[in-house]
Amino acid sequence: MASRTLPACLCLAASLLAGPAADDPKEDPAFKEEVNGAIAKGVAWLLARQDSTGKFPGFEDSRGEVYPLGMHALCTLTVIKGGHPVDSDEVRKAFRGLASLYGTHRNALKTYEVGSVLMLLDAKYNPPEERKRRKKPKVSEDDRKLAEELVKWLQIKQRPDGMWRYPEGGEDLSNTQYAALGLWAAHRMDVDINKGVVRRMMEAVLERQAETGAKVPLILDPAAWKRAGAERRSTTSIEARGWRYVREGEVTRDGPDGKEHRVEYPYSGSMTAAGVAVLGIGRDILGDKDSWLTPARDREVRKAIWEGLAWLQANWDLNDNPGQRGNWPFYWIYGLERAARVSGVEYVGLHDWYHEGALRLLADQRPDGSWPKNQRMRPPGDQNVRWWSDQVDTCFAVLFLTKSTPEIRTPPPVITGGSD
Question: Using CA atoms, how far apart are residues 163 and 271, in angstroms rounded to an integer?
């Protein structure tokens, strides 16, 4: 997205967007070496699971195989983002496996799968070593046709309220995030996206953010904040407003007894990161000249993004999913990477999100290169435990460590000073 003209009061924003340059622990050669080694081990562990037809295993429970296309796409995406060449035998085989799986499951697609496949296609034409390339990727006719077909599916499956679901059964922010990621990936491949779909998505996500939140400091210069005494620190503040999985709760049969019961979802780190990401992605797809994204509405969107970051700042926890302890800790940490990259920040408040997150993941990696599904898992019987796997968590960990999400700069909201 091209830059809008910003008022002079935002000049300090560069400090947060760039982060303190001196003594950056992320630039420590030993740290970089350890991170690169962890990425390589994680990718090697995934590749060891690839079968002779190029497919990665899906997830199985009492209903049989679940999300086979999505699981395969997620693993292949991780291998590419982890630095494995697109023209390697393993990746070539993986794309042949993708074609086979898509042919089998194209009439029973899921939102998570469609988003993941589009992200994979984008990675094929924008691999890590070519991130800074300015030319539009040359997409093959077959891949363009597939991307257009998947975009059409997403646009048809959007609910009237602007959100997505599996696609059956209501709406939720997690599926909506993967729909947004898929649309963004296709946009990066120069596939036409219906702007009305994006506008409705952004309106729905804005509407679902918490109405109010605690005030937290708006820290535009972490280094200066740390140096200054309490009496010299800025009193400028911002509301911390999060998101949750489903706004009104839902009736579900998920649970150890299989009986119908109502679930009320808390505001959480994973879903707040999703809300931030969806708004940043939508803003990037629409661009500066969109008639809906007026300067006033763009300020509203940026304010919502930064208030989401403020919620993460106020509830910071990399050992668990803030607000929803024991649920989806690796999904949360990958979501943090996405929210930070889409916002273009190196710090969330005073937290160097990448360095702190990488240290946590380095400590959790097993000797075989994988990350364990049972790390900080809730006791058996929790509704989400059945969805966890070493394979998925290893993908999320590697995608975090590689900073796999393309970066966008999202200027902070205009706050002129004082307790706002």
Answer: 14
